[in-house]
C-alpha cells in the first residue's frame, strides 16, 4: 500500500455525497478550509483539517491552493480526423449549424490509418487531462460503416483498459452516411443489426442523434431499444436544433442515463426531465460555437433536474475539451453559481455515467484530484480563461 498526503489545501471541494443536503449544491461541510487529503492505492482514504492529518509515505504541500474533484466529461467525440474550421468560419459569418457536416469528418476519419487515429485520440485525452479532466466518456460515430465503427470502438475500449477512457459509447446512428442517401431505413437496419453486433462487446452505452436531418423519434427509439437489448445503457443527443423530434421525451420514456444538448425545449419538458432519472447534460462550449440559444441550465436546476456539464469535444460543434471553460461559461452566461457549476461538471457528469465512485472526493472515491493554481475556486469565473490547472491526479497517479 502506498499513500500520499496532499496538504496545504486552502479550499477542499470534496462534494462528499454522504454530506449532501437537498437543494444545496455544496454545503460548508463539503468545502473544507485549511484541509488535507490522503490518497491510498488510488482512492481517497481520508480528508479533514490539515492539522489532524495522518502520516503518509509521501507528503505534498500544495501551498494554499484550492482542490476540486477532477472534471467528469460525460460527452465527447474524440475519434476523428479532418478539419472543419471552414464550416466554423461560415457559421461565425451567419450560417446555421446542420447535421450534414458530420459527413465531412466521417470521410476524413475513414481515410485515417488505425495508428494515426489512435494517436489523435491519445493526444486529445492528454489535452483534456492537462485541463483537469479525469473522467472521459467517448463516442464512436465518425465511421458509420461496420468496419469503421468497430475500429473506433476497439480503439476506445483499448484506452478504457489502459485507464484513459471511462465509458465507450456507440453512435452509429449519428447521421445517415452519403452512400445510404434516401435509404435511411436500410442504414438503420445496418446500425441495429451487424454494426451493433460488431461493437457491443466494446461499448458501455448506445447513443443516437435524434434530430431533423439525422434520425426521427421513431427511428431513434428503435436504435435505443436494440442497444438496450444488447446490454448497453442509453444516451440521447436531443433538442439541439429544435424540439421537433422530442429526443428529451424519448430519453425520459426509455429511462436513458442522459439527454444531451437541450437548447430547444417544449412546454412541460423541464418538469418531465426533473421528474425522471435522466440527467440533463448541457454543453456550453457547443452552444457558443454554434451560436445556439444556451441550454436552460438555470431553469433545469430550478425545476429540480440533475444537471451535468460536458465539453462535447468534436470537430463540428465544439472543438475543445476545456471543462474549466465550460464551467466558466455556465457561471457567467448560464447563471449557475460556482458551486452549481462545479457540481454539474463533477457529480453531474458522474451521474450521467452511472458512476457513484467518481466526481467527488469522499472516502472510497477514485482519487481524481484537480489542483487549481489559486486559493479560490471562484477564480474559475472571476479570472476567465486564465491557466488555472496546477496539478492533476487520476486514480492516484499524477498526470505529468
Ligand atoms: O454533439 N450533434 C451531433 N453530434 C455532435 C456534432 C457532430 C458534428 O457536427 O460533427 C454534437 O454536437
Features:
13 helices, 400 residues, globular, Urease, subunit C, domain 1, 2 domains, eight-stranded parallel β-sheet, binds N-(iminomethyl)-L-glutamic acid, 23% strand, alpha/beta
Distance between the termini: 22 Å
Quickly count the helices: 13
Low-confidence stretches: none
**Which CATH architecture of the largest domain would you pick?**
Alpha-Beta Barrel
Count up the domains: 2
Q: Beta-sheet strand percentage?
A: 15-25%
* Alpha carbon gyration radius: 21 Å
The helical percent reads: 25-40%
Query: How many extended strands?
Result: 15
- Helix-strand sequence: EEEEEHHHEHEHEHEHEHEHHEHHEHEE
CATH class call of the largest domain: Alpha Beta
- Mean pLDDT reading: 98
Strand order of the largest sheet: 5-6-7-8-9-10-11-12
Q: Give a quick account of the main beta sheet: strands, pairing sense, barrel closure.
A: 8 strands, parallel
Bound molecules: N-(iminomethyl)-L-glutamic acid
The coarse silhouette is globular
CATH topology category name of the largest domain: TIM Barrel
Q: What's the name of the CATH homologous superfamily of the largest domain?
A: Metal-dependent hydrolases
Derived from helix and strand composition plus strand pairing, the structural class reads: alpha/beta
Structure commentary:
With about 400 residues, the protein is α/β, with parallel strands linked by helices. The chain folds into 2 domains: about 5-70 and about 360-400, Urease, subunit C, domain 1 (Roll), CATH 2.30.40.10; about 70-350, TIM Barrel (Alpha-Beta Barrel), CATH 3.20.20. Helices cover about 35% and strands about 25% of the residues. An 8-stranded parallel β-sheet has the order 5-6-7-8-9-10-11-12. It has a 7-stranded mixed β-sheet with strand order 3-2-1-4-13-14-15, with no helix packed on it. Helix 11 crosses helix 12 (about 340-350). The longest helix has 17 residues, at about 115-130. It is globular. The two termini are about 20 Å apart. The mean pLDDT is about 100. The protein binds N-(iminomethyl)-L-glutamic acid (NIG). N-(iminomethyl)-L-glutamic acid (NIG) binds next to helix 2. N-(iminomethyl)-L-glutamic acid (NIG) binds near residues 77 and 209.
Amino acid at each position: 500500500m502506498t499513500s500520499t498526503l496532499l496538504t496545504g489545501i486552502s479550499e477542499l471541494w470534496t462534494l462528499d455525497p454522504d454530506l449532501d443536503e437537498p437543494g444545496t449544491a455544496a454545503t460548508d461541510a463539503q468545502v473544507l478550509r485549511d484541509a488535507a487529503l490522503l490518497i491510498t492505492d488510488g482512492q481517497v482514504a481520508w480528508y479533514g483539517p490539515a492539522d489532524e492529518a495522518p502520516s503518509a509515505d509521501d507528503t505534498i504541500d500544495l501551498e494554499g491552493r484550492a482542490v476540486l474533484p477532477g472534471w467528469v466529461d460525460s460527452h465527447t467525440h474524440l475519434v476523428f480526423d479532418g478539419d472543419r474550421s471552414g464550416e466554423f468560419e461560415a457559421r461565425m459569418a451567419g450560417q446555421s449549424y446542420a447535421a450534414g457536416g458530420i459527413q465531412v469528418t466521417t470521410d476524413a476519419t475513414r481515410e485515417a490509418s488505425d495508428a494515426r487515429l489512435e494517436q489523435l485520440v491519445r493526444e486529445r485525452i492528454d489535452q483534456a487531462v492537462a485541463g483537469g479532466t479525469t473522467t472521459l466518456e467517448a463516442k464512436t460515430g465518425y465511421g458509420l460503416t461496420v468496419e469503421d465503427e468497430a475500429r473506433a470502438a476497439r480503439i476506445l475500449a483499448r484506452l478504457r483498459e489502459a485507464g484513459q477512457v471511462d465509458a465507450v459509447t456507440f453512435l452509429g446512428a449519428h447521421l445517415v452516411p452519403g452512400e445510404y442517401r434516401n435509404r435511411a431505413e436500410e442504414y438503420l437496419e445496418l446500425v441495429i443489426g451487424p454494426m451493433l453486433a460488431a461493437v457491443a462487446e466494446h461499448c458501455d452505452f448506445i447513443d443516437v442523434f435524434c434530430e431533423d436531418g439525422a434520425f426521427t423519434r421513431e427511428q431513434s427509439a428503435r436504435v435505443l431499444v436494440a442497444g438496450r437489448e444488447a446490454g448497453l445503457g442509453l444516451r440521447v443527443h436531443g433538442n439541439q436544433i429544435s424540439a421537433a423530434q422530442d429526443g428529451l421525451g424519448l430519453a425520459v420514456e426509455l429511462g436513458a442515463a442522459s439527454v444531451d444538448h437541450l437548447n430547444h425545449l417544449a412546454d412541460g419538458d423541464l418538469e418531465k426531465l426533473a421528474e425522471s432519472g435522466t440527467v440533463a447534460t448541457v454543453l456550453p462550449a457547443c452552444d457558443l460555437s454554434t451560436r445556439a440559444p444556451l441550454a436552460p441550465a438555470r431553469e433545469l436546476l430550478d425545476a429540480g433536474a440533475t444537471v451535468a456539464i460536458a465539453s462535447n469535444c468534436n470537430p463540428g460543434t465544439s472543438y475543445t475539451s476545456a471543462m474549466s471553460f465550460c464551467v466558466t461559461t455556465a457561471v457567467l452566461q448560464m447563471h449557475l453559481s460556482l458551486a452549481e457549476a462545479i457540481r454539474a461538471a463533477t457529480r453531474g457528469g458522474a451521474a450521467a455515467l452511472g458512476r457513484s465512485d467518481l466526481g467527488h472526493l469522499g472516502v472510497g472515491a477514485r482519487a481524481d484530484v484537480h489542483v487549481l493554481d489559486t486559493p479560490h475556486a471562484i477564480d474559475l469565473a472571476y479570472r476567465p480563461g486564465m491557466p488555472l490547472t496546477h496539478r492533476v491526479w487520476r486514480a492516484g497517479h499524477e498526470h505529468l
